[in-house]
Design brief:
The complex is a heterodimer. Chain A is α+β, with helices and mostly antiparallel strands. Chain A is built from 5 helices and 9 strands, in the order ββββαββββαβααα. Chain A has a two-stranded antiparallel ribbon. Chain A has a two-stranded antiparallel ribbon with strand order 3-4. The longest helix of chain A has 36 residues. Chain B is of the alpha+beta class. Chain B folds into 2 domains: 90 residues, Pleckstrin-homology domain (PH domain)/Phosphotyrosine-binding domain (PTB) (PH-domain like, Roll), CATH 2.30.29.30; 160 residues, no CATH class. Helices cover 47% and strands 14% of the residues of chain B. Chain B has 7 helices and 7 strands. In chain B, a hairpin with a 2-residue loop joins β3 and β4. The radius of gyration of chain B is 23 Å and the shape is elongated. The chains are: A alpha+beta, B alpha+beta. Chains A and B meet through β1, β4, α1, β9 and α3 of A and β4, β5, β6, α3 and α5 of B.
């Protein structure tokens, strides 16, 4: 077995061909980068591609909607079209066709197909904290960050569980910054007022 | 389309580090890989029934170089404080040490690569081998439910698969950012505005180095610089609102405390350069941290 390599799989560190021993819980060392590797091979690695081979349709049998020469295996849960093993897609516990899946994704009804999300909460937090380093800009960015955090409060920032802690922190930092600037300007105004009074006296 | 709501649960041991670039979540029928990119995240779904292999591997870390460089940098902060018998600044120095230590010793040193016929994804794991093995066991249990027991490696030729390799190293202009930070760090004692620019360069470095596959030495240099800059900002605020502790050594015009940030930046540049050269030598045709080919 030594020296045998798995075609197509690569070492995660160096990109070299993966040794067979790496797919063993006991572990192995990559010949190229000497990285320690431990792994598992699952039946899908050895699965023959013949499992998706289609059968020709015979008289009286239902044919695939997209491939009339192939026998149907299931029907689409959404539109009812007959589908061959090649066309059926298992999604959220159902068999659907590509057209229905694409339509659902296009209409935004398939949250389970979402490929990305924007972190409004992280952006709000960054806007409320980073400008503090530059002092003067925080006077402008703090109200904007506060408004942004409140405006996007209900927006979904992730499909995985995510707390509102960043939004809360953004609001808190923004309020503190605004309060600090208000206090500063009140202080400046009072000092100028006292100076003016002293000048008149 | 009627659709069941997916319930995602974190893989064991990957939950308590929300700041990492790549995380893994499990649902009833698939493994969700979440890759953070600045202020957004990208999702990749690997269905249990399609997963062909899972490989545990050690992330890049040059322990001796890392520890040596870190020791030099930390001594540069703590040494002058201890020798000159400063009181309050020493507390700030210890805060720096603890802050950095809490970041450094909770870093991930193991990664997991999960491959299907058409996709290969990597994500970071917890710090030690034992907990990483538990994740592998967890993956094995979930995949076994969908496919049956894991296959034993055999001597017979395996099926040809068409797995595509993931990105080997992030291609980002990190050296330029480090050099910029280095120059600004040297000049920062002369001007508050240059110090502000230095902080901005450090922030950029942080975002560029979020990926867990990045060499730890490079990330540690940026983190040390950032913590030190944050402490200097905090102390500058305390000094300027007239709470007069003996914070003078951290004051802007003191050259001796410009030295640590210069060392941190030098450390970063060295780490980027060393890592890139090693990567380029080993695999000429792949991208390196410098983006060279």
């Amino acid at each position: 077995m030594n020296g045998a390599q798995i075609s197509g799989l690569q070492c995660p560190r160096c990109g070299g061909e993966l040794p067979v021993e790496a797919l063993d819980p006991q572990g192995a060392t990559c010949a190229d980068c000497e990285a320690h590797l431990e792994g598992l091979a699952f039946p899908a690695l050895f699965r023959s591609e013949e499992s998706s081979v289609w059968e020709p349709v015979l008289a009286g049998e239902a044919a695939c909607f997209f491939h009339p020469d192939r026998v149907a295996a299931v029907s689409c849960s959404r539109c009812g079209r007959f589908l061959c093993p090649f066309c059926r897609i298992r999604w959220a516990g159902e068999h659907v066709c590509t057209a229905c899946l694409e339509a659902a994704n296009r209409n935004g009804k398939a949250a389970a197909l979402a490929s990305s999300r924007f972190h409004f909460d992280s952006l709000a937090l960054a806007m409320s904290t980073l400008p503090i380093l530059t002092w003067i800009f925080s006077m402008l960015t703090a109200p904007f960050a506060l408004g942004f955090a409140l405006f996007t409060w209900r927006r979904e920032c992730s499909i995985v569980p995510r707390s509102k802690l960043r939004f809360l922190a953004a609001v808190l930092f923004s309020l503190l910054t605004i309060a600090g600037w208000v206090a500063f300007w009140i202080y400046v105004a009072r000092r100028n007022g006292l100076s003016a009074t002293a000048g008149r006296d | 389309m009627v659709q069941r709501e997916q319930i995602y649960r974190p893989l064991f041991g990957t939950r308590w580090r929300p700041a990492s670039g790549v995380r893994a979540w499990q649902s009833a029928d698939h493994l969700l890989i979440v890759e953070g990119r600045f202020f957004s995240e990208q999702y990749t779904r690997l269905f249990w029934a399609d997963i062909q292999s899972a490989v545990l591997y050690q992330l890049h870390s040059r322990s001796s170089f890392l520890l040596g460089a870190e020791a030099v940098c930390l001594l540069a902060v703590l040494g002058p404080l201890a020798f000159r018998n400063y009181g309050w600044p020493l507390i700030a120095g210890v805060v720096f040490l603890l802050w950095y230590g809490s970041w450094r010793f909770t870093r991930r040193h193991w990664g997991c690569q999960v491959a299907t016929r058409t996709s290969t994804r990597q994500f970071a794991l917890t710090g030690n081998l034992a907990s990483s093995r538990r994740i592998l066991e967890q993956l094995r249990d979930r995949v076994s439910l969908a496919q049956g027991a894991p296959a034993e490696p055999t001597e017979t030729p395996m099926q040809q698969t068409a797995a595509f390799s993931g990105r080997q190293f992030p291609r980002q202009p990190v050296t330029a950012v480090h050099v910029t930070a280095f120059v600004l760090g040297i000049l920062s004692p002369f001007s508050v505005f240059i110090f502000v620019a230095y902080c901005i360069a450090l922030t950029a470095a942080w975002f560029l180095q979020q990926d867990f596959r990045f060499p730890l030495a490079v990330r540690s240099a940026a983190v040390m610089s950032q913590i030190y800059a944050a402490l200097r900002v905090a102390i500058w605020i305390l000094v300027h609102i007239s709470i007069r502790f003996n914070f003078m050594p951290f004051f802007f015009n003191y050259w001796q405390f410009g030295m640590p940030q210069v060392l941190f930046s030098l450390y970063g540049i060295t780490a980027v350069y060393g890592r890139s050269i090693a990567a380029a030598k080993r695999q000429q045709n792949s991208a390196t941290v410098l983006g060279l080919r």
